[in-house]
Write a sequence for this structure.
């Protein structure tokens, strides 16, 4: 084959990453393309719940079945990105008590191992839960880290000879006689444009899939649905908590690392780039959290963010919570008479591998590749830094390592216990260290700046270290710092009251008064 | 003798207590804990000139201040009066001198000092150990810091200065203690090392051969804690060129030096400093504050006073509390607050917007006596005075008025 690549995959989320790996494992030369970093879209902006399927069992059993099947697969193939927290469904005084029986039957019909446990047992395991809950059920939910998952997928793709092109925006599809034959991409930092030839192009752009398909004149109607999440500064629970009712706002609480994330809202948005957060959404999360964990709204809220779900129902008009969470693979040769382009859209993080498999099957059929899908068995590499293994969901693991290192001054980020060695290792591995967004990329690798101070102290240290490493000049390091603290600010701003507000005032004082960052930005 | 109770042990509270005592009152300071001295860079900023649209970049600071006050009649400077600012500075110098901390400068012009990031910041009055960093004088500088220390990056500082036209180079020196187990790697730990002559000699010996024409050497602000004046002088002597300090990440060693100076001065003047005492609420009778209630294990205790000075630090210090519904409350008396709009408007979408965040103007409105007033300008509690960051109507960070406002308002509030 004379093409640069056999297949171009557009979209560096879980679906795109999974599709690229699937195709690479079948021997194809792939390039995974994203306009920003891997997980910059919806995959990196979700709560981290690896669904058991219980949430969808009543109203969307097809999704529920997909979830539980893939839940079992992902536990095997991505153990380093999953923490087996287990999950509870609880009936609170605010929930219809009759729903639980319907729900339990539906779970069993979908092959989900849901079992009722005594309320006393649930409260013993999770003492922070509302003591007035009436019923409790155990399900095989888990907490997953999409940053680690995607870093693992990226590493596996490259190990198979594939390319990962982050910060490359697709600005056009190359079309020859009603066949897509490649894509034009623009390097976001340098502005340089490149034409990448590919025998096939997979559109895995999620909420942006409509925009990509439109470049080939194909209509794909994605309904972007924004969900807002709030990370609280405490890991209130060690088990995922779901309200046992029809899915609604703020009824999932997920322990992730050292924090607990509550989600979500569901708001239809015309523009998938709209990740703005309204004040009512934050208030709603706190009020709903209060029903699961009394005192919730008094605790410190650390950070808010929003992700945009790529809801898709062929020919359907259902929106928001009514829309199914299943997915579709569209072969545009059949749909629109445009060959060489396949869109995979809809679905969930939990079902990404299945979506990838189905999309890859369509691609392989057209390219005459007969090798079967291997991702069901292929274990993703563990990409975590040595210091964070075994999976550190409590800081004590890392603290022991840091203390053993005997060097207090080596701690760059005290909130998340990131050491200088961690930082330098991750920075050396970064593909484009002079990019202004480098610190935000390193954050996804290291959790730098994700703790209570939100970059107040570690931001300056990281910029100083980057500059000391000799690849960024002072102007670049300063610009990287400005970029980082601005991005951290975006997630803090909706949550500024109480202790978080005081922290923000300290951070502002550090950067404005002590360091004068604003003076160098001018 | 009149009894004065000061709530808050930040710079405004400490200065107010000192002034009230000097004027003959019997004074107590009560606070939850130490205040913002420990995060203050150490310099005294009164007003940044040219930073915010006022003409006449090089007009004397005095004149600019006059014009500023004339244009902002609700600003704490206008209410307290510029004489209070001068008086407050005189008292600060007084407290400093007793501890060997000498403050240079005045109201003629601002120093231009390098920050740890290599930006340029203005300050009217600075500790002696900052003076040689003044960028209005042309000498090339060497920026030096301990190798491998996380809180100061000499190369980044020097390179940012250089690209703005200030000749600067960087050098790291070895400080083996930094790499030992259990070392206090905060600025305080390093400052304690610089209290020692042998450490200073070691450092100077490493730096001196690398001066390369530099006429001054900038260090992070860690040159001694207990014996800082000696440390700075001695290090300068050893180097043969003046050393100067550059504030870096908190905790701030210059701020702690000032706090210690206040602590000693207040102790000598017989003013008890009661920390770990959180005033839960005030007691009011017939429009007068009677005292403050402090919860205790056995029973709540009431501390009575003739005058109560609130220097509780506003939102930052905890003097104003806030919750997720956007409700703001003055923590002790529930005093009327000036609030800039709804919660969604408190903060700009930019982290460091040139015009500042509206929330900074939130606080207690006062009259010229620093008495709290309501929306109609009526005094709410006539024997309560307010000083420092709890006050409404100014943005300390954008104006560059942080220390100036606490000097002026603390002096005014304590002038009973």
């Amino acid at each position: 084959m004379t093409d640069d690549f056999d297949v171009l995959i557009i979209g560096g989320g879980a679906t795109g990453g999974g599709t690229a790996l699937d195709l690479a494992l079948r021997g194809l030369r792939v390039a995974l393309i994203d306009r920003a970093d891997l997980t910059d879209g919806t995959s990196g902006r979700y709560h981290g719940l690896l669904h058991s399927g219980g949430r969808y069992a009543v109203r969307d059993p097809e999704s529920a079945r997909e979830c539980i099947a893939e839940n079992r697969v992902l536990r095997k193939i991505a153990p380093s990105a999953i923490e087996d927290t287990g999950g509870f469904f609880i009936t609170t005084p605010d929930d219809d008590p009759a729903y639980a029986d319907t729900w339990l039957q539906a779970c069993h019909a979908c092959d989900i191992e849901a079992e009722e446990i005594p309320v006393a047992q649930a409260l013993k395991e999770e003492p922070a839960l509302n003591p007035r809950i009436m019923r409790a059920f155990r399900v095989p939910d888990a907490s997953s880290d999409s940053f680690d998952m995607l870093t693992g997928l990226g590493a596996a793709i490259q190990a198979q000879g594939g390319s990962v092109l982050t910060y490359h925006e697709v600005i056009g599809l190359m079309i020859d006689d009603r066949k897509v034959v490649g894509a034009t991409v623009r390097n976001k930092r340098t502005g340089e444009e490149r034409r990448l030839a590919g025998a096939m192009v997979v559109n895995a752009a999620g909420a942006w899939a409509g925009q990509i398909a439109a470049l080939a004149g194909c209509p794909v109607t994605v309904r972007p649905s924004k969900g807002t999440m709030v990370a609280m500064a405490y890991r209130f629970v060690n088990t995922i908590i779901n309200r046992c009712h029809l899915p609604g706002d703020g009824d999932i609480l997920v322990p992730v690392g050292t924090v607990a994330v509550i989600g979500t809202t569901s708001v239809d948005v015309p523009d998938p780039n709209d990740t703005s957060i309204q004040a009512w959404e934050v208030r709603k999360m706190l009020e709903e959290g209060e029903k699961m964990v009394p005192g919730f709204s008094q605790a410190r809220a650390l950070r808010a963010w929003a992700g945009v779900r790529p809801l898709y129902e062929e020919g359907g008009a259902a929106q928001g919570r009514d829309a199914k969470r299943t997915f579709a693979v569209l072969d545009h040769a059949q749909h629109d008479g445009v060959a060489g382009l396949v869109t995979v859209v809809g679905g969930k993080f939990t079902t990404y591998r299945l979506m990838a498999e189905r999309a890859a099957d369509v691609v392989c059929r057209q390219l005459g590749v007969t090798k079967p899908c291997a991702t069901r068995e292929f274990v993703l590499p563990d990409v975590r830094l040595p210091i964070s293994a075994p999976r550190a969901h409590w800081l004590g693991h890392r603290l022991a390592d840091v203390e053993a290192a005997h060097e207090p001054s080596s701690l760059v980020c005290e909130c998340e216990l990131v050491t200088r060695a961690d930082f330098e290792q991750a920075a050396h591995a970064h593909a484009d260290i002079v990019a202004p967004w480098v610190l935000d990329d390193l954050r996804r690798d290291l959790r730098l700046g994700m703790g209570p101070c939100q970059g107040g102290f570690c931001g300056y240290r990281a910029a100083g270290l980057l500059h000391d490493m000799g690849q960024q000049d002072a102007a670049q390091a300063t610009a990287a710092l400005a970029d980082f603290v601005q991005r951290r600010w975006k997630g803090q701003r909706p949550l500024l009251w109480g202790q978080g507000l005081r922290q923000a005032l300290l951070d502002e004082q550090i950067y404005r008064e002590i360091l004068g960052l604003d003076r160098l930005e001018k | 003798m009149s009894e004065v109770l000061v709530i808050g042990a930040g710079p405004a509270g400490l200065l107010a207590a000192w002034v009230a005592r000097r004027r003959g009152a019997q004074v107590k300071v009560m606070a939850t804990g130490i205040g913002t001295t420990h995060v203050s860079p150490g310099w005294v900023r009164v007003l940044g000139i040219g930073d915010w649209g006022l003409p006449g970049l090089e007009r004397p600071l005095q004149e600019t201040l006059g014009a500023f006050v004339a244009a902002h009649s609700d600003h704490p400077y206008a209410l307290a009066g510029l004489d209070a600012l001068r008086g407050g500075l005189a008292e600060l110098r007084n407290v400093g001198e007793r501890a060997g901390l000498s403050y240079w400068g005045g109201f003629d012009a601002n120093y231009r000092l390098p920050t740890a990031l290599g930006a340029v910041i203005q300050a009217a009055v600075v500790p002696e150990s900052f003076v040689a960093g003044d960028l209005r004088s042309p000498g090339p500088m060497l920026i030096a810091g301990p190798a491998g220390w996380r809180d100061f990056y000499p190369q980044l500082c020097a390179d940012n200065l250089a690209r703005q036209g200030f000749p600067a180079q960087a050098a790291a020196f070895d400080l083996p203690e930094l790499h030992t187990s259990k070392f206090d790697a905060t600025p305080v730990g390093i400052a304690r090392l610089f209290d020692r002559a042998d450490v200073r000699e070691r450092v100077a010996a490493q730096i001196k051969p690398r001066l390369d024409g530099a006429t001054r050497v900038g260090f992070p602000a860690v040159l001694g804690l207990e014996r800082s004046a000696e440390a700075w002088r001695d290090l300068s002597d050893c180097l043969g060129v003046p050393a100067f300090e550059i504030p870096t990440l908190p905790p701030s060693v210059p701020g702690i030096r000032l706090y210690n100076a206040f602590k000693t001065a207040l102790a000598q003047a017989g003013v008890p400093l009661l920390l770990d005492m959180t005033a839960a609420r005030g007691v009011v009778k017939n429009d007068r504050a009677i005292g403050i209630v402090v919860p205790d294990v056995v029973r709540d205790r009431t501390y009575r006073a003739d005058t109560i000075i609130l220097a509780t630090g506003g939102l930052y210090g905890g003097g104003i509390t806030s919750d997720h519904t956007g409700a703001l409350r003055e923590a002790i008396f529930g005093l009327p607050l000036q609030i800039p709009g709804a919660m969604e408007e408190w903060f700009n979408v930019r982290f460091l917007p040139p015009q500042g965040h509206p929330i900074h103007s939130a606080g207690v409105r006062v009259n010229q006596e620093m008495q709290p007033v309501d929306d109609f300008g009526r005094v709410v509690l006539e024997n309560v005075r307010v000083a420092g960051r709890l006050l409404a109507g100014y943005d300390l960070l954008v104006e560059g008025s942080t220390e100036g406002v606490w000097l002026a308002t603390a002096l005014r509030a304590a002038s009973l």
